[in-house]
Design brief:
There is one protein chain. With 455 residues, this protein is of the alpha/beta class. The protein folds into three domains: 2-125, 3-Layer(aba) Sandwich (Rossmann fold); 142-384, pyruvate-formate lyase- activating enzyme; 390-454, OB fold (Dihydrolipoamide Acetyltransferase, E2P). It contains 14 helices and 18 strands. The strands form five sheets. The chain has a five-stranded parallel β-sheet with strand order 2-1-3-4-5, with helices on both faces. Strands 14-15-16-18-17 form a five-stranded mixed barrel. Strand 3, helix 2 and strand 4 form a beta-alpha-beta unit.
């Protein structure tokens, strides 16, 4: 039978999809990229914010149309299912099998029941609402991690080092969906990294909901720096980066490692969310304005050429005009290289959803636009400083008209950050440089991308 996959949401979710693809291939199913040719369609959903939930529902309904044609089974898994199982079963009878996160350890048994015997096992798991009662989610086995099918191409792969989250920010539903933070064993992570290197992967992107929490639950201390250093010793891996590092967990040891290890990107992704102390307190964040400013200053002093990325939230319940203006002024001063903004989304079951003074949607949009407009200018200003400088670039594609090679420097995260457009010398064969590293001189910029030439 042919199986088609759709993976929604974050890179952590994508790894779950890749593992599931590997399981199907192991059982001799053929993976197809065309839903019209699929006997089975599997959708891995996100349930984090309203827009993600809407996308998931629309995708399920769209794929359900194929059941009137070739598709025999529609399977839906992931965060949305974990969070809204009872409602979804009633709302969408078109779906043949729902798989929650806490059923991943019996995932194949349920699929086997469906496909082999047309039996849909209905979950009997008691609905849990109190975060203190939520157990750690069962992880995929090490064998399943090693057998996953990387879908991000031949150059880079995500490497997940933990599941869940224990930070309990008042706006976030992740702990309710995926449970508390659980680290993977270091030896398992290193084994997977070595296997990825053997497959030709050049860049590893280390991910978890909060990578700085790695090791605390199983080793009693923050072991991220130690883990990164051991990964850097693996032959074949050229670039290493880690994402989602909460400010309170960034240690001097980690900063020093990034400053001195040539394989590790001089790149910090620090989701601070806000800068107003009163808002940070309502969010149940663990840092203050003073601590955030001191951390940014420390990192830039130790690593002058560092790339800093952050994510912010506007329209959090009770956010006053003064608190927003404080955030906007901070953005102007901090001049982050990369910055993403989210409009607060009221999530079921979270403390923030019950807070007074919910902000009107139009106000959220206005505040979002003001920060993004400011950041666009900051981004261009930061990029213009790179004109005339030389960078190593990994070329991954070519423009449709053949005029430019398209690549990334070590400063750019795939699918998130900007790109480098390199003028294509007509003497070079079009595909000669794809998946190769080249030296490049920057000639010009636009708001988020660089334009260069090979030297």
């Amino acid at each position: 039978m042919n199986v088609g996959f759709i993976s929604l949401g974050c890179s952590k979710n994508l790894i779950d999809t890749e593992i599931t693809i590997g399981r199907f291939k192991e059982h001799n199913y053929k993976i197809v990229n065309d839903e019209t040719k699929a006997d089975i369609l599997v959708i891995n959903t996100c349930g984090f914010i309203d827009s993600a939930k809407e996308e998931a529902i629309n995708t399920i309904l769209e794929m359900a149309e194929y059941k009137n044609k070739r598709c025999k089974y529609l399977i839906v898994m992931g965060c949305l299912v974990q969070r809204y199982y009872d409602e979804l079963v009633k709302l969408l009878p078109e779906v043949d099998l729902w798989i929650k996160l806490d059923e991943y350890d019996i995932l194949w048994d349920k699929i086997d029941d469906l496909v082999r015997r047309d039996i849909v096992e209905k979950s009997k798991t008691k609905k849990i609402t109190k975060i203190s009662e939520i157990p750690p989610m069962p992880m995929f086995s090490q064998e399943e991690y090693l057998d996953r099918t990387v879908t991000t191409g031949s150059n880079y792969a995500y490497l997940k080092i933990g599941e869940g989250c224990s930070n309990r920010c008042t706006y976030c539903a992740i702990p309710y969906i995926r449970g508390p933070f659980v680290s993977r064993k270091k030896e398992d992570i290193l084994e997977e990294a070595k296997e990825l290197a053997k497959k030709g992967i050049k860049e590893l992107i280390i991910i978890a909901q909060d990578t700085t929490k790695y090791g605390i639950d199983i080793y009693g201390k923050n072991c991220l720096a130690e883990l990164l250093e051991e990964i850097s010793n693996i032959d074949g891996i050229k670039w290493i980066r880690f994402l989602y590092s909460y400010p309170e967990g960034i240690t001097d040891e980690l900063i020093d490692l990034v400053a001195t290890n040539p394989k590790i990107a001089k790149y910090f992704d620090i989701p601070i969310q806000h800068i107003s102390d009163t808002v940070l307190k309502r969010m149940n964040r663990k840092t203050s304005k003073k601590q955030i400013i001191e951390l940014i200053s420390k990192i830039r002093n130790k690593i002058p050429d560092v790339t800093l990325r952050t994510s912010l939230m506007v329209g959090f319940p009770g956010e006053t005009k003064e608190e927003f203006n404080e955030l906007l002024e901070f953005v102007k001063i901090a001049k982050f290289d990369k910055l993403g903004v989210f409009k607060y989304s009221k999530e079921d079951g979270t403390p923030a959803a019950r807070m007074d003074k919910q902000i009107h949607g139009n106000t959220k949009t206005s505040r979002y636009n003001k920060i993004m407009k400011e950041q666009q200018e900051i981004s261009k200003e930061n990029l213009e400083k790179k004109i005339g400088k030389k960078y190593e670039v990994l070329i991954e594609n070519i423009s449709f008209d053949g005029r430019y090679y398209i690549g990334r420097t070590i400063e750019n995260v795939p699918d998130i950050d900007g790109l480098v457009y390199i003028k294509n010398n007509e003497k070079l064969k079009r595909k000669e440089l794809i998946n190769k590293f080249v030296n490049c001189k920057i000639l010009d910029v636009n708001s988020y991308d660089l334009i260069g030439e090979i030297i």
